[in-house]
Structure formats: structure tokens, C-alpha cells
Write a structure and sequence with these properties.
The chain is of the alpha/beta class. It is about 50% helix and about 20% strand. It is built from 15 helices and 13 strands. Strand 9, helix 9 and strand 10 form a beta-alpha-beta unit.
Length: about 375
């Protein structure tokens, strides 16, 4: 099958990670795969590193400009299926598909995302045969009855390859001025988790007087926000938190840590849970529909009541006091990832999806 992934965002994200992982996996299975992305973006660099065919969009291209570029790229490569991650990109590819009059489109849906097409999405559905790739059977079932999607829905559960984490060199604790016996928390953050990171910082303010060995490394897009630093300083935990920003090598950060704390949502939150478990870290996170899907409370981690710093601090203090239990949870998390959230199962889901879309294209031709 000839497949094109299109991600317009210049910023590395969980959606871009899904695209590059699926692209590499499908290419390894013998499919002809290309990735279309912004020139100079992080995804473009990773596409090059993975030796995948790249279609680069102009740095300041408009949606219309991208559509013309994609039309030429899809015609040149005889693309049968294009895969996108949001409504804007769906409309761009649908416009290119109309111009080139070829191919179906699949939109990958973030965990728990509710599909309610806006004006652009409704136009896209009229322009091209389209389908959805969900991250779980539950999400697919709840979306039953959606109108206008010509290609049957498929499921490709998010997954990771734990062996890839085993080869990562742990970040040196000395780089952030920590002793080797410090209790280190790797906290994954993105801007939609602002309320969650506030809870983390307030809980640390209550914990560190009795646990001076406790230190958190916050990383991810938006984690260098000056407001976060000011909040940490106001709570007098500035010395106990290191803000790393967006890191290129998250596995090295995870492998240096003792615990993973998730302050992100959507596919970024899902990946944070999976990455921590793949590194044998017990996971701390607020209890919600997303974290309950990935973390087995009391088995692979600790799910907290939402937004109460004193209760959070109390539960975390009890949690970190039992190091043997934490280690057992980390091992259980690793086993859960291998059993239920493997990267190979995710790639197989994408392959089922493109085959279903390809069948739809052939029937329509």
C-alpha cells in the first residue's frame, strides 16, 4: 500500500510521534510510506533520521499552499491512503485529494477525543472518502453511529517498544546537581495540564520539608513557561524542581528517575504513562478516564483524587515510603506494556486501517 502521513504542526508532539512510529512500522512491513511535514520541523528531522521518504512543506505555507504541494506529492507517489491527526489537516488533504482525484483519508483520533466535525470537517467528508483510527475499542464503540465516514472505523491502540528504552543511557543526575540517592520524579507536562502541574508543585511544597531527598524534573512542551518557575518559587520549591523544557531524549530522563508523574492529557498523557511503565517506573497521576485506561491503580501506579494538594501529598508520602512496593509496581507496569500496549500491536492496527481504506479506494475506482 502507498501511504502518506501529513502533520502540519512544526512542534514535536505526541501526534507527530504516532505518525513517525506508524510510518516506520508500516515501511518495515513493506508498504511505501512518505511523511509530509513542515520544512525545518522536528518531525522533518526525525523523518530524515528514520530514512523515510519526506515531503517538506514551506516554512510559512498556507493551507491552500500545502494542498497544492500535497496534490503533486500524492500524484507523483500514487498515494492510496493519507493519514492525518486533526480536522485542519483532514481538510487540507481532502482538498488535495479532490484536486488529484485519488485516495482515501484516515484521521487518527487521540484517546478519549470526541469527534464532532466543524465546518471544515464536514467539507472534508464531502470531498474525500474518509475514516477514523481510534486508540481503543471503547473509543470506537462510543463513536458508533457517526455520519459521513465512508471507511469503516479501525482501532490502533497506542503502544511502545520497551526494548527501545532499555538501550537509552540514563541522564546523569549530576547534570541537574542531584546526589545519586535522591528520590527523583520525572514529571511529563504539556500546557493543557496546567492545573495538574499546579497540584504537583503544591504537593511538593508539603512533602519536601519532611523529604528533602525528593526532586522533580518537569519536561515537555511548555515546561519552561516562566509562570511555572514563578509558581515554584512562590511555593519555595524552586530548589526541588528542575524544568528541562522539551527534551529530545525522554527515555534518558525517565531512566534516571525513580517515579513517573503524569501531568498531561490526550495522547501526550497516554504516552507519558506508557513511557514510564516501559522504564519500570511506578506512575502517579490524577484519576480520570485517560489514566484509568493505561494505569492499573495499586498495581502499576497510584491514581489520585483530582486537585487536592494536601490529600495528594499524604498519599504520595505513603507511596514513596514503601520502596519495595514502588519497585514491584514498576515491574508490573513493564509487564502490562508488553502485554497490552505493544508498539507492534499499534502498527498492526494501522495496517488494518490502511487495508480497509485501500479496499474502499479500489471499490470506488
Amino acid at each position: 500500500m502507498r501511504v502518506l502521513f501529513y502533520v502540519s504542526s512544526r512542534v514535536w508532539s505526541a501526534a507527530a510521534r504516532v505518525a513517525i512510529t506508524a510510518a516506520k512500522g508500516l515501511a518495515a512491513k513493506g508498504h511505501e510510506v512518505a511523511v509530509a511535514c513542515a520544512e525545518g520541523s522536528q518531525l522533518a528531522a526525525r523523518t530524515s533520521d528514520a530514512r523515510i521518504d519526506a515531503v517538506t512543506m514551506g516554512k510559512s505555507a498556507s493551507a491552500a499552499g500545502d494542498a497544492w504541494d500535497l496534490k503533486r506529492a500524492m500524484e507523483h507517489r500514487s498515494i492510496e491512503v493519507a493519514i492525518v491527526t486533526n480536522e485542519r489537516d483532514h481538510l487540507v488533504v481532502a482538498s488535495a485529494r479532490l484536486l488529484g482525484n485519488r485516495g482515501a483519508i484516515l484521521r487518527h483520533v487521540r484517546p478519549l477525543e470526541r469527534i464532532q466535525p466543524g465546518r471544515g470537517g464536514k467539507i472534508a467528508l464531502k470531498l474525500a472518502a474518509s475514516g477514523l483510527i481510534f486508540s481503543s475499542e471503547k473509543d470506537a464503540t462510543e463513536a458508533t453511529g457517526l455520519k459521513g465516514w465512508a471507511v469503516p472505523p479501525c482501532v490502533a491502540p497506542l503502544g511502545v517498544d520497551p526494548s527501545g528504552f532499555d538501550s537509552a543511557e540514563p541522564m546523569s543526575r549530576g547534570e541537574v546537581g542531584l546526589a545519586n540517592d535522591a528520590l527523583l520524579i520525572a514529571c511529563s507536562y504539556e500546557p493543557s495540564g496546567r492545573a495538574r502541574i499546579a497540584t504537583v508543585l503544591r504537593a511538593l511544597a508539603l512533602l519536601t520539608p519532611r523529604h528533602p531527598e525528593l526532586h522533580a524534573m518537569v519536561f515537555g512542551p511548555g515546561s519552561l513557561d516562566e509562570a511555572l518557575r514563578m509558581h515554584a518559587s512562590a511555593l519555595a520549591v524552586g530548589a526541588s524542581v528542575t524544568f528541562l523544557g522539551e527534551v529530545d531524549d525522554a527515555p534518558s530522563v525517565m531512566r534516571a528517575a525513580n517515579i513517573g508523574w503524569v501531568a498531561a492529557e490526550g495522547d501526550a498523557g497516554a504516552y507519558a504513562c506508557l513511557d514510564a511503565m516501559a522504564c519500570r517506573l511506578p506512575v502517579i497521576a490524577e484519576r480520570n478516564m485517560l489514566t484509568q485506561q493505561y494505569v492499573a491503580d495499586g498495581i502499576t501506579g497510584l491514581l489520585l483524587a483530582q486537585g487536592d494538594p494536601p490529600d495528594t501529598a499524604s498519599e504520595v508520602a505513603e507511596f514513596i515510603a514503601d520502596r519495595a512496593r514502588c519497585a514491584a509496581m514498576g515491574n508490573a507496569g513493564r509487564a502490562r506494556v508488553q502485554r497490552e500496549f505493544s508498539e507492534s500491536a499499534m502498527i498492526e492496527g494501522f495496517e488494518r486501517a490502511i487495508n480497509a481504506a485501500g479496499d474502499r479506494v479500489r471499490q470506488a475506482s
